[in-house]
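To: structure subgroup
Subject: Chain for Friday's discussion

All,

I'm putting the inputs and outputs inline so they're searchable in the archive.
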Amino acid sequence: MPALVATHHETHIKAYYQHLIIDNGLKKIQAVCAVMRKLLHAIHGMLKTNKTFEGARFYSLPLQANSLDIL
């Protein structure tokens, strides 16, 4: 359940979830399992290093072509 909630409410996790479905062609349940596993690794790292969650370390948002300022 935490993976499902995170895919709806956290932008970096949502982008990772969509990347798995669109770019890698995974089924939705496979993508949720991948997010779940990655969240477990992130939580373990957070507890081990005593740091807070950083979405940018979870998944870097890709640059969009319309957001680039090309002169």
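Points worth raising on Friday:
The radius of gyration is 14 Å.
Residues 2-57 form one domain.

D.
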